[in-house]
Amino acid sequence: MGNPEKRPDIEAALRDPINNFMDWRQLDDGTYIALGRLMFTVGLFVGVGPITPYKRRYCFNDLHDAAAAFVSMETGDEVPSGWIARRPETPEDIEAKAKPNYDPSQFWPKKDDDNV
């Protein structure tokens, strides 16, 4: 791997301010990843393309956790740690939400929601 072919079309999409990415890079396997603020979380976008925004997205409570995952990723197949939600949801995510003891509030309020 080591030196994947650059994709000017993807890099143009990553630089476009309308996409609101804070940082981006290409992994050794050629996968493009990016960080971006979402409404309530920070997203790590994996498999960014020129048309589709991403193949997978991992949401983090704060920029610190998202940035740590961003810098530690080596391949696009990795699943980072520390995320609180992901898209698309996997069968395991859906199964967990169906359990009677599922508590989505375990992640809320977030650290920066003191004034809510």
Detailed description of the structure:
The protein has helices at 8-15, 63-72, 91-98, and strands at residues 21-26, 32-37, 42-46, 56-60, 85-87. 22% of the residues lie in helices and 22% in strands. It has one domain. With 116 residues, the chain is of the alpha+beta class. A five-stranded antiparallel sheet has the order 1-2-3-4-5, sandwiched between helices.
DSSP strand content: 15-25%
**What is the rounded Rg?**
15 Å
- Helix vs. strand class: alpha+beta
Strand elements, count: 5
By DSSP (H or I, 4+ residues per run), the number of helices equals 3
What are the low-pLDDT stretches, counting only 5+ consecutive residues below 50?
Answer: 107-116
Give me the strand/helix succession: HEEEEHEH
The protein's oligomeric status is single chain
Number of domains: 1
- The termini sit apart by 47 Å
Helices and strands in order:
Blueprint (H helix, E strand, L loop, with lengths): L7 H8 L5 E6 L5 E6 L4 E5 L9 E5 L2 H10 L12 E3 L3 H8 L18
Antiparallel strand pairs: 1-2, 2-3, 3-4, 4-5
Describe what is shown at a glance.
The chain has 116 residues and is an alpha+beta fold.
Keywords:
alpha+beta; 116 residues
